[in-house]
Design brief:
Layout (H helix, E strand, L loop, with lengths): L9 H33 L14 H12 L4 H5 L10 H7 L6 H31 L4 H8 L5 H12 L9 H7 L7 E3 L2 E3 L8 H15 L4 H13 L1 H21 L12 H5 L1 H16 L11
Length: 298
Amino acid sequence: MLRPSFIPPPWQRELRDLCRYRRTLVQERTREKQRAEKLLEDTQIKLSSVISDIFGKSGRDMLDALIAGQRDPYVLADLARGSMRGKKSVLQEALTGHFRDHHGYLLAMMCDRIDALTAQIEALTGRIDEAIAPFAAQMAQLDEIPGVGKTGAQELIAEIGVDMARFPTAAHLVSWAKFAPRARQSAGKSKPGSTGKGNPWIAGTLGEAAIGAARTKTFLGSRYHRLARRRGKQRALVAAGNSILTITYYLLSDPGARFTDLGPDWHDRLTPLRRKRQLIAELERLSGKKVLLQEAAA
């Protein structure tokens, strides 16, 4: 068990404050962007249906033009850059709405707030880079885990530290982070378990890492999709987060360890007989017929 008297060292407490505040500002910036998008939707400007990030270079040029008083959809669409210019006709339609000076005033305030938050986030990131510099090796280890990345590695180190000696096993770390569902039984019947209420900061980091890993063709991505089909997306995210935290424990426990992906087909290679049964069941479901296997002719 954890030593009850454990107190994070000063460097970790400072890094934790910086990382948590950065995450708070990122969340505030996201909410402000959502407000701006809703404002545009209210004026029938459907820019987000054409541009994935309306605050990118092309989208921001169009927003600034709207704020400056430009209302002609043809002129606005002509501000598109790069590959976005191939969508000019669709952009013209999306930029045809009822945007007035009133909306421009509000949008200008929202964009100013987004810019201010972005500047603060960049300043915090620079301060975090300086604070975590002594642990560059550990950051490099965690950065190799699919879905984690530089920001996720910084936040994991801020929340759990780099000394894994205080956790007897990886299971203790996972349990401490509340990423291990607890079994519930009553009258001999098992009921769906929950992880309990844990640290929301580490939960946010692991959740984002799990979503990122789910988009990769790796063991973690395969694990997520296998479980999502049977148990649902939320439980699959918890399981992927559990695996990421377990990997983190073993990497930080060994300074020379490097992440090695087991591969997306690891479960298939581990249990070929189970995979065979799954394929037969799937074929029977699709064909509506019974499938029997026989030895191939020599």
